[in-house]
Amino acid sequence: MSTAPARARTAREDQALHAALSVRERPSRASGLSACLTFGWRGMLKIKHVPEQLVDVTITPVLFVLMFTYIFGGAIAGSTGEYLEYLLPGIMVMSVLFTTVYSGVALNTDVTKGVVDRFRSLPIPRSAPLVGAVLGDSVRYVLGAVVVIAVGLAIGFRPDGGVVGVVAAVALVVVFAFGLAWVFTTLGLLLRTPNAVMNAGFMGIFPLTFLSNVFVDPETLPGWLETVVEINPISHLVTASRGLMGGSATGGDIAFVLASAAVLAAVFAPLTVRLYRSR
Amino acid sequence: MVVVTSSTLAIEASGLRKAFGDTQAVAGVDLAVRAGSVYGILGPNGAGKTTTVRMLATLLRPDAGEARVLGHDIVEEADEVRSVVSLTGQLASVDEDLTGQENLILIGRLLGFRRKEAKARAAELLRAFDLVEAAGRLVKNYSGGMRRRLDIAASIVVAPRLMFLDEPTTGLDPRSRNQVWDIVRTLVADGTTVLLCTQYLDEADQLAEGIAVIDHGKVIAEGTPAQLKASVGSGALHVRLLDPEQRPLAEQALSQALDVGVHREPDPAALSVACARPERAAEALAELSRVGVGVAGFSLGQPSLDEVFLALTGHPAEETDASEELGPGEEAA
Ligand SMILES: Nc1ncnc2c1ncn2[C@@H]1O[C@H](COP(=O)(O)OP(=O)(O)OP(=O)(O)O)[C@@H](O)[C@H]1O
Ligand SMILES: [Mg+2]
Question: Interface pTM (ipTM) of the complex?
Fold first, then answer.
């Protein structure tokens, strides 16, 4: 290096490059499944390298748990413990749904940074990066739920549904998140910058979460608002999660949640794939 | 006479067109690129280089025209094309939130290598591209040159038969630029065909066997670097000043010494002036030092892209309509 600063590469590097270039044989193509799993792995690495992103989304729900429990808990439901039974499943839903916005932000980042061009020029199914990303994000969704539940447990949340009920509730929320995430990936391909996706995403998900039964019983609301809250799928998701965690789930809500997730995925997943292909 | 058959051509394109709304980005491009060579597409911002390459790499569907890449039709046999080419896009297309090593393993896995093979391949490439020390660092902390090298490494996880390189050295310092050039030369020596987009005649001259100059989505000139330079006429004296503030003074001195118009380069400290003979250049430089202009460097060499454009089109490269269409915010991007 010191002898020939003008010549940038050493002979040894050139040799290494020649050797590296000798690999011209393509291995047999990755299967669609293996490509999806590889993209899932990529999502996992991002959680490891950029944990701030997860903290960003879960901090609000955690603050809500603490704030509502200690400030309003007594006034609304009589006791802190009882209110937590009511509040925590809803906040968990909120935490996971906020996390889904990031699926769209991440996709937009890939597009604006040019990474998508490389993926699209590889001989893999064109939907693999999308499916794989959503798969990888499921870990993110579970973490978003776990953080809120952990905080709840620490301050006295004791669900009657036990471990099974809690796990079932988390699973249901994650399934719904799978459906909803496609809405944000669609948004991620339509808007120009990651920030725009984030803003638009939260502009949608915030009111939707608040116009649900996360915080209050809809019966205490004026008539028209009560109707809005009752048809909001998020309300059904919250009711179902509460039921599962409390050991008294209703099949109707669960079915409604699964159906809405299926409808969201059926409409927005193909839309995302189409937009992605035609970019 | 040498018969150029389709098997010796890595790329044959005819009448490629692509519009984005009202912008005709590519307006009928024909190309014939010999297998095993570097072919340069030279053009200013907005000329349609990236759009052309994206069509050839099957990322964009042409509105009209057709092209075969290594014998495969880019529309009908897109999948086959993708399995023999690789693309190093204008934006370094690597994942910034991953480490360099992880980026290479990711591509290896996607190409079908097993985990262990992908890892070994990544290690080999990191060595070849002088990135061993940076292997475990996140790419967002890489310098521009490192990022570009990683990007090229990612393109040769399986050495492709044809590689698209879109402005691989724009924004790199001279050392990194030389490194990238060496890598391209090695690639070609080992049998890869390279389609290189660039804004620098110098780069095309260094690497390419043939060059197509494009402007407004059309090929306006084609030939070997020597032919192009000959058509432009004289060589040029390029001067870089120590102090950009002195440019007007330098401009005056140079135009007096050489008795021709002086061209202001986009770099605020740089000037160029047509000048075919070294002894005249020496006089001009002496004149600069006489009037007290500090010179950081000079070269007597080829005309810049601007001069090529001036000679070929009668207008400088910056004044094409395409660049006027860009909004003020977009130009910086
Ligand atoms: N996705 C797009 N949507 C709309 N217009 C586009 C798009 N891509 C390119 N264009 C326009 O098409 C024209 C050609 O762009 P292109 O990117 O091919 O030029 P280029 O030669 O690569 O330029 P540069 O040197 O700046 O990279 C420009 O006017 C550009 O604004
Ligand atoms: Mg370009």
Answer: 0.85
